[in-house]
Amino acid sequence: DLVIDINNPIHEIQPTMYGIFFEDINFAADGGLYAELVKNRSFEFDAPWMGWKHLPETETRFNTVNELTIVRDANNPQNPRFVRVDKGDETPEFGLENEGFDGMGIKNGEKYDFSFVARQNKENITVKATLIDTTGNIIGSASTAVNGNDWKAYEVVITPTATFGAAKLQVTFEGVGQIDIDQISLFPQDTWKGRKKGLRKDMVQLLADLNPGFIRFPGGCIVEGRTLDQRYQWKKTVGPVDQRETLINRWNTEFAHRPAPDYFQSFGLGFFEYFQLSEDLGAEPLPILSCGLACQFNTSETVPMDQLDPYIDDALDLIEFANGSVNTKWGKIRASMGHPEPFNLKYIGVGNEQWGQEYFERYEAFAKAIYTKYPDMNIVSGTGPFSDGEMFEKAIKELERIKPELVDEHYYRTPDWFKENATRYDNYDRERFKIFAGEYAAQSVQTASPENRNTLECAISEAAFMTGLERNADVVYMTSYAPLFAHVNRWQWTPDLIWFDNLTAYGTANYYVQKMYGTNPGTHTLSIKREGENVTGKDGLYATAAIDKNSNELIIKVVNTLGSKREVSLSLNGLSKAVEGTMTSLHGDDAGVFNTIEEPSKITPSESNVIAENGKLNLQMPSNSFQVVRLKL
Ligand code: AHR
Q: Are 487 and 262 in contact (CB under 8 A)?
């Protein structure tokens, strides 16, 4: 059936080919990857008590309590609010309760750091932290006294005696006196790489398992913000965590499909941490910055051209932050955060999903400034949210003139669109810019509806589409599914690659497709033909082939989108000896099936051994299947 020419590599496949796109949507950062369990730890949400409740919880007391007051410190503009706790000898026990993010995921026997900053104004108060389950049973506690009238950090360890996904943290005050308290925090000690106050280990591991070639951050629409004021400003996300100014999340607003009024960004996961994560995973960092245009779906607020300089400076300073020597202003800040070595930033994105003259005008001003100072930088431009139609064509015309290195295209389309578009880049003008397929996901039904699922059909159609991305690796340099993460109870958008609750996380069928591509990228494409033609969907069959010159392996990816099984025979021209290898298969009889938090492994790949003899290999392809064969040459 399929003939592969193993001796004639065609296009180089970029190491960046399969990557990930991170956005703080669906509680992916605060309440997700960032392992902080306390919501609104420094009382800086628009409503200072959001996420907190006063104890004891009687109606009258809640309304009249004056032992707990919010105070503003004008000398601390990034984090002005703190709580004053006043306890007289007649006052009955009182305190605060934090609800976490839909509760807190607590694991039996693990260690949790409870911390806060405080100062004593008069006499002694002991701060006690207690973890409770929904019925009020205590599952762990620890306490520490506050002493000294300077702001100081306090920390104690809680070792819970039960596992519970919806725990709450009660903070009560014992003794008589007055203290000020802020930054009330609870983190597991068992984080990714054991970093203190770091990232959720299970979630990062799922990312590491994808073997990503790059990480695009921090979004998405949150880069742009609903208004310019609410855009993502990376400078406010680096340096000491308590000086990172809290900001409303773009997905908090009425413009989100499922708005979450308690969605704010603490920026505990900020630009330094994104660079560090990219380095940990061996992925190229790809930051995207505001181009001076707020989200065009929302306010479309626009910075006049003669006031664009601070935005452009943000881009130039970011490159200095990532790559500059420790003697530069921003390189020094990176070093002060524990990373004197540069992060070797090579790519930077200007604007997300923006279009029209106002975008291209601004893009050009950024590009001029960036190339003047950093001629080797690769700049990524957007095309708007379109992948075809009049607006898209207009954008492409502009981009042909402007010539960015990479152009970011987004496709949130039906499974049929994905199957039909496996040939999208076959006749692409090779002289044009390169493609970053920066956001894509097949939609089983309407985007963001609860019924829009990560079905096997969607995953298989994406696998089919990706054969076309890989075949055209001389044009397509980067690809990433979107969005990446979603909390099962707190999402704003569907479908998503990885779902999680407070205790666990699982990969969807789409995740396994990404993983099968990401862990089997190859270094060069090979010709794979059926009756002399590319294998692009006739009778539901799609294929691509590559060689990994580093490991000397042949990699063949075949997709069967039919609801019936078939046999596919492969002729490996140029190979006569018998060679052994593995075959990874993702499949299922029911194309509508999807993994869930209760049943996370309904669709997972299975692996078997294969042998090719006399240059032949037969694949038994089940219905709705994606198979990757790896042969040691
Ligand atoms: O991935 C979700 C959103 O889709 C992104 O924020 C935006 O870029 C696109 O519209």
A: no
Q: Which residues pair with 478 in a beta bridge?
A: 436
> Position of tokens 């920066």?
438
Question: Based on the domain organization, do 273 and 324 belong to the same domain?
Answer: yes
Strands (E), 393-497: 406-413, 434-442, 476-481, 485-487
Which atom of ligand 1 is least distant from the CA of 21?
1
Final residue in a domain of this structure, among 159, 188, 217: 188
Reported as half-sphere exposure (CB side, CA atoms, 13 A), residue 32 has a value of 30
**Is the Cβ–Cβ distance between 229 and 158 less than 8 Å?**
no
For the stretch 258-285, pLDDT in tens is 778 999 999 999 999 999 999 999 999 9
* Catalytic site positions: 353
Task: Provide the 8-state DSSP code for 92.
Answer: P
Give the residue, by CA position, lying nearest to ligand 1 atom 4. 220
Question: Where does a domain end: 171, 188, 205?
Answer: 188
Residue 575 in any domain: the answer is no
Name which residue sits closest to atom 1 of ligand 1, judged by CA.
483
Amino acid at 247: L
Query: Which of 216, 221, 288, 481 should be mutated for ligand 1, with most atoms under 8 A from CB?
Result: 221
CATH number of the domain bearing residue 260: 3.20.20.80
Residue 586 alpha carbon to ligand 1 centre in Å: 27
- ipTM of the complex in this document: 0.99
Among the residues of 166-217, which ranges form H helices?
Answer: 201-208
Measured from CB, residues less than 6 Å from any atom of ligand 1 are 23, 25, 219-221, 352-353, 385, 439, 482-483, 493
Q: Is the pTM of this model over 0.90?
A: yes
Nearest atom within ligand 1 for CA of residue 353: 8
DSSP-derived pairing of the beta strands 164-175 and 104-106: antiparallel
